[in-house]
Design brief:
single chain; 0% strand
Length: 213
């Protein structure tokens, strides 16, 4: 092969091509490259920070939602409560007065039983109080009324005690219950005990004689 026939060998496609002599314009460095902090990188790519680095969210929306739902905060609930001093003293005084009236009523029931069951003695006591000189025509006629009065008084006290304790547990004003019940049952038993006296002829005659004199 002659020198004139020598041709340059074709360049391989894999061989790098020579770059032109003209300088290529410099590209800007990325703003979140190796010199950017993690916060700057996340701010650039809009990636949220980890939970432990996120600031705490204010509790105002939660409080607003609770207020809209009708749930009061501890401070609001404390402000709505009445002063603790006066109600406690009133409740304690009401409890003491109620128990004292119940104890007095029980004492009255126990001491009244002997005179109710012995109607003759009861009649003599009433005659002495009234200053009346009289004697029962039939002392035994008043015994059933005495027993009835004793039963009414005992049942009345038990009913009063039950209602009073129930009212105290509900936190209601209770002192008036044993007071009114005591007056009512005392009046009922007094009427029962007075029926034999007012129906006895000897007693009626003594009363009329005292009035006429």
């Amino acid at each position: 092969m002659s020198d004139g026939d020598a041709r340059p060998a074709p360049q391989s496609a894999e061989a790098p091509r020579p770059r032109p002599d003209s300088a290529e314009p410099s590209r800007p460095r990325p703003q979140y490259g190796e010199y950017a902090s993690p916060e700057e990188q996340r701010a650039r790519i809009q990636q949220p920070a980890p939970e432990w680095q996120q600031p705490a969210t204010p509790a105002a929306p939660v409080i607003a939602d609770a207020a809209a739902a009708g749930i009061r905060s501890p401070q609001q609930a404390q402000d709505l409560q009445p002063p603790a001093g006066a109600p406690v003293r009133t409740r304690m005084a009401d409890r003491v007065i109620t128990i004292a009236l119940l104890v007095y009523g029980l004492f009255n029931v126990v001491t009244s039983f002997p005179s109710f069951l012995d109607y003759g003695t009861y009649a003599e006591t009433m005659f002495a109080v009234m200053g009346l000189d009289a004697t029962l025509s039939d002392p035994g006629a008043g015994r059933p009324f005495g027993i009835a009065a004793a039963v009414v008084l005992a049942l009345g006290w038990m009913a009063t005690a039950v209602v009073s304790l129930w009212s105290l547990r509900r936190g209601r004003l209770t002192w008036w219950i044993p007071l009114v019940a005591g007056i009512f049952f005392t009046f009922v038993t007094g009427v029962l005990m007075a029926i034999p006296l007012m129906s006895d002829p000897a007693v009626v005659k003594a009363l009329l004689g005292t009035t006429g004199g």
